[in-house]
Amino acid sequence: xxxxxxxYDHNQVEADLYKMWEQKGYFKPEVNPDGEPFSIIMPPPNxxxxxxxxxxxxxxxxxxxxxxxxxxGKAALWLxxxxxxxxxxQVVFEKKLEKExxxxxxxxxxxxxKATLEFTLKNKEVMESQLKRLGASxxxxxxxxxxxxxxxxxxxxxxxxxxxDGLAYRAxxxxxxxxxxxxxxSDLEVKGEERVDSLYYIKYDDLTVATTRPETLFGDVAVxxxxxxxxxxxxxxxxVHLPLTDKExxxxxxxxxxxxxxxxxxxxxxxxxxxxFEAGKRHDLEIIEVIDQYGRMNEKAGExxxxxxxxxxEKVVEKLQSLGLMEKIDTNxxxxxxxxxxxxTIIEPRILxxxxxxxxxxxxxxxxxxxxxxxxxxxxGKTKFVTEKFEKIYRHWMTxxxxxxxSRQIVWGIRLPVWYRKNDVILSGxxxxxxxxxxxxxxxxxxxxxxxxxxPPKDIENWIQDPDVFDTWFSSGQWPFATLKNTKPEDFxxxxxxxxxxxxxxxxxxxxxxxxMLGLYVTGxxxxxxxxxxxxxxxxxxxxxxxxxxxxxxxxxxxxLYGSDAVRMALVFGTSAGSDVVISEEKIRxxxxxxxxxxxxxxxxxxxxxxxxxxxGEIGSxxxxxxxxxxxxxxxxxxxxxxxxxxxxxxVTKNIEKYxxxxxxxxIYAYFWHDFCDVYIEATKAQLFxxxxxxxxxxxxxxxxxxxxxxxxxxxxxQLHPFMPFVTEAVxxxxxxxxxxxxxxxxxxxxxx
Length: 753
Fold this sequence. Notes:
Shape: elongated
Structural class: alpha/beta
Oligomer: single chain
Distance between the termini: 33 Å
């Protein structure tokens, strides 16, 4: 007879089991062809590096939901994918180039794109193998990549639709400019940092203004005061001399000025401040840029030309002081500065021609308003947030959202399907090293000068394509409907809207909100019915994991050491929706011990049921013919465990359905370890008849006990399977040797009720 290994060795079974599942087609929704549709679209990991514990969290949670749905007879689709990740990948690739002693600016656009693509596809292969290593039961035959030609076509169709609807437009407006990476960034890619700086009080004749940026005074076009500020009413409409120049600028009244800030008078520099730009529009003021794209003073700054911002600030202050134009300096001024979220470079506002999506404007043709429609969908309950606090945050952000800058001055990504007629375009050669065609100046938006299309214009020799690429969140914001429209013909109708979107709360605005707006706009329906947001991963001391702190845990490394099941269970255990995930190697090791407990208890049960050899692990000759226990005579121990078993099934089922995954995990853990192993298995030792070891037991009670043991064990494995798929399948395959009527895999069995 077959022998059951004494110890569970995850390294001996996990890879083979995954291969078996995949080859049998168990990951496909067609396993339950008549089942209710259930779908999750995988948040596509960036194809620029290995998976980290944050990825392991989403893999665990989404696989848990998918396996549970599959066990409940649903046509469960978990569609996998990968993201080219535009700016983020280019940043990673730039670091690689720097280590190799070169730069993206040394490469042509075509060569840079090809090199980045090769880098990305290699990482994509590694990433997919890691997803499989952690047990992701997604349908690989439906896998998608954001740069798939069919996906790009849909992205172009959406942009064209928005453009024709008046919701995609090009304008010269203030944008967040990173002087290191040489690209604009959306508001979401800018992080505010509170810090202490100097507040400079500069004399503009008899008027003193307070500013943190004296170096930009060469771009000043006015001084503004609040119209109700009695101190300055007589000065409104008059002019003052602009320090260090021979210019005079007007004093204007604008309600944006806070009379309590500084002196109540502020300099207006439209080219280098968002609020000043808006004030400039209201008062029809000139825009004068004095800082170039590299963060250096330009020719408008006179003797300070070529200096970097901080150096120029220091020199300008010295000059003002030498001329007696500096009234005072407050060195303890606390304010917030915006930085690039990738490199921490201070953002420099610049007025540039960029492409924007209007989020608060009603479409000319559709009558749709992106932000308002996305809010209403939540109001109407079409999309529900599992955690109430994130719904409140979503509402607040969507209520205050501004138009979205979607053009990026990088090479890696989906290039804008926009062409400008050559005779109507002025090119800037500053970016020719990697853009090749330069940056087209702003042009009128009409069919004669601008062409937007899914395909290039027929007389393409007369046109120049916009060198910019889409913000990666514009393409990934279409992910749910773009993927399902490009798999099987029936998939979109069957699986859209998707059942749940699970992702980290930190990309609620980056991604979830974008998907809501674009999904509703293109399809008329929400992209997902439920939103589950998980927290950040922290160590046992609740510190954020970082390489500098030395507390980073490699999910694949600990999976090799302790098993994927242990990693998965540790990530779920003790973590509620939206809360940070606290993890440590000790916690993972503890779940490895639970894997061993499952194996050992199962092994003992199977050997006792078949009168096998406990020393060698050889299964006996007896088989279980059925698991019907309705008419059995039950002992007190039987009654107690069956009642507890029924209660546990109901509670675990309810908690998973309500997304209370941690509670479900804790319940089945406690039940299996304590009630089943510690209590019932011990009680069965006196109930099981064995001629050699226990001849006093009633043979009928013994037969009943064997059925109960296998029934409880098999149904416990099913409840554990979404959390710990490998060890439960490994035991299930052993169970088939003593009860052949079980389904051939636990993956295609039916959830107990």
